Amino acid sequence: MMDNQFLICFLNELQKVMNDKREYLIELDSVVGDGDLGLTMGDGFTAAYEAVRDSGETDTGKLLYSAGKAMSIKVPSTMGTLMASGFMQAGKVLKGKTELADGDIAELFAAYEEGVRKRGKAEVGDKTFLDGMDPAVVKLSHSLENGDSLLLAAQKAEKAAEEGFRRTTTMIAVHGRAATRGEASRTLEDPGAAVAMLMMQAFAKAAESLF
Amino acid sequence: MKKIINKPEDYVKEMMEGLYIAHPDLITYTGDDVHCLVSVNKKPGKVGIATGGGSGHLPLFLGYVGKGMLDGCSVGDVFQSPSPDQMLKVTKEIDSGAGVLYIYGNYNGDIFNFDMAAEQADFEEDIKVESVVAGEDVASAGPAAPGEKNTRRGVAGIIFIYKCAGAAADAMLSLDEVKRVAEKAAANVRTMGVALTPCTVPRVGKPGFEIGDDEMEIGMGIHGETGIRRGKLEPADQIVEEMMDKIVADLPYVNGDEVAVLVNGLGATPLDEQYIVTRKIDSYLKEKGIKVHRYYVGEYATSIEMAGFSISLLKLDDELKGYLDAPAQTPFFVQL
């Protein structure tokens, strides 16, 4: 069993990877958007981590909710609010828990995805964050159901997210500025799905630290 | 960049401070945050109306908070949405038990944040919130098919929605009724704009796009979103005719209809030119047999220092006419 220390470790890895990949995200986003994704993700996930780092909060749900709330205040951009919505939904689902089994971790990411999906009113295949996240969530829960360790499951999820991100170059954008390009948007890599890929990298790193 | 400012990062904060100094009889702020603007004139039991969005569009959005229109407004950085937390602070301050209506423009950042604020208002504060999203720019997308979501951007026409909903709330209608009036106004308004020069976001420091000295872009959005046609600048009458053809055909506005007209300068187009435009709009509508109930000419929703203008039409029935004509007093809108 794990407790909130694991989540704080995950959030720390998350802000680290988003800050490390700042320029990469800016570059991806500059092709279609306004190029500020690297800044909002770096600043937003840092705010999420800082809100929980020393909070001493033992309720997993409340911890995640407060991470989301801090992020929504810090970066009220489109993507910032979507990522905050994921944390807040995960917080609602896990409210009341102080210990986490492997299955709860799968539930956390499923709830995160659901929070983003509901806020953005997007579906898998629309060339968004969900196209990186959804394959990872599916892989994570299957892998754990098959008895894999959390580390192995996290690594498989990481790979699934990366493959999902690569597959966005086969999809036509239907949301945001990229959508105005229609068919011409197809070959572009989706910056949102890249964020999902980086998120699962951070999760695999955090899982490594458990072993 | 050539602007009368101090530090770019203080642009919004200092603008807000100036507004509170100039209009203490109408507006103040709540939650210890100058971005959370509320009316000082409270009417107990009235439905609260809030709006919000990025800065850089004055008088939009905050300029319509006052008597007979809006009760609160949260503002973000230039062209950036305010946060759900700021929207929630405004919501709490303006709710007097009758609920709160959000009216804002159709942009993803604003939608996501207002949705989150509405959930928090319900979940954390037990305040009932309804929303009406304005999306009337005919150049930004085709009309939504039945059941599909509207993808048109919201621009200057939102002022008509504020005015009608604000008057309905002032007449002490219920939240559902105020929402119905707002939706009716939203369904009957159409806008189109034209831009001649770009604008510069202070913290960015350079223009958002390039356009030739002799060029115009028909249908450009108020953040510089791509329009439907770029070409050589034409005489005013010709530009108006092209825009009016698109607007009138869209609703459509037909012979016998009665409308209100909003001619809106985008920031750097003088009133002189706006009245030249107004004159042509009038002859165009006369020819179509469309009667004008009222004109509004001036700066209502700008794009910092962009040159250009937009035209909005609101089709009126007796109900909307009554609400449009009702008195209002805000820092930027006074109607006796």
UniProtKB/TrEMBL annotation, chain B:
Gene3D superfamilies: Dihydroxyacetone kinase, domain 1, Dihydroxyacetone kinase, domain 2. It holds the Pfam family Dak1. The keyword Lipoprotein does not apply. It comes from Bariatricus massiliensis. This is Dihydroxyacetone kinase subunit DhaK. Its EC number is 2.7.1.121. The keyword Transferase applies. Residues 7-333 form the DhaK domain. InterPro entries: DhaK_dom, Dihydroxyacetone_Kinase. GO terms for molecular function: phosphoenolpyruvate-glycerone phosphotransferase activity. It comes from the Bacteria. PANTHER family: TRIOKINASE/FMN CYCLASE, TRIOKINASE_FMN CYCLASE. The gene is dhaK.
